[in-house]
Structures are given as structure tokens and as C-alpha cells.
Amino acid sequence: MNKQRSTESSEDYLEAILRIRSERGSCRNVDIACLLGYSKASVTKALAGLSAAGLAEVVARDVRLTPEGERIARRALGRHRFFEGLLLEAGVDGKTASREACRMEHCLSEGGQREHRVVGLHRRAAAGRRGGGRSGDGGRGARLQALRRLHGREGCMRGR
Description:
Blueprint: H1 3-24, H2 29-36, H3 40-52, E1 56-59, E2 62-65, H4 67-89, H5 94-104, H6 113-132, H7 140-152
Antiparallel strand pairs: 1-2
């Protein structure tokens, strides 16, 4: 498994743990397996790696994020929600939008210049939806343009 794929997988696990803990207050291996559609054995192996990396811990069958794991999970979830919202506004159905957003969230390097530009664009578009924008489309056009630029540049979605 290459480092890029490993990082994506780790972020998906961290994001799943965050979501489950937010909804239920606790998280078990079986909850993660159910959400992600993986076997319990695969989840246990992945959690051992996350624990060794200092990103998660299991205490009495309760899976918890470390502060660093939570930081990474929140950033990944924020990127996911951004792309999911963009796709929903573009008319993509909810299930497909969520699945595609999961793939797209990994295209932006954490803390990279592209991530900062996209976040800035999102904030400007949000201001447009609140009445501060100029285009009259609630910021939708600018966000769709950003999606097209990200999708076309460096081929981050190609070959997946």
C-alpha cells in the first residue's frame, strides 16, 4: 500500500470515528466496520496502525481520537462537507455526492496552498449567499468554477 493511499484510508477511519462519536458519544470497532463496510478484522488492524501513529486509542472497547487524530478528522470532514455541498448544489443525488466527496476530499493536501484557496473561495461564496455577493447566484458559480479547476488540475481524480 503506498503512502498516499494509506493516508487516505487513515483519514477515512479518523473521520468515521469522529462521526460515530458525535452521534452516539462512543465508538466501537463494529460501528466503524458497519459505517465503512469493512470487516471487523480489517478495522482492528487499521486501529492498531492509528494507535501506533498516536492518532487513536482503544480503551475498554471504546475507540477514541487523540487530539492530533481529532484535528485531522475535523479537517477531513470539513473538506468532505464542502465538496458534498458543492455536488448537491450542482444537482448530484445525495448518495453519489457523499461518495464522490469522499474521494475528492483527499485531492487537497492538508495545509497546502490549494486547500487555503478553496477555503477562502468557500467563505466568499458563503458571504454571497448571505447577501454580500455580486453574482446573484449565492456563490454557486464561483464554487462550481473552483470544482472544475480542482478536477482538471493535476488530474487528482483521474485513475481512481
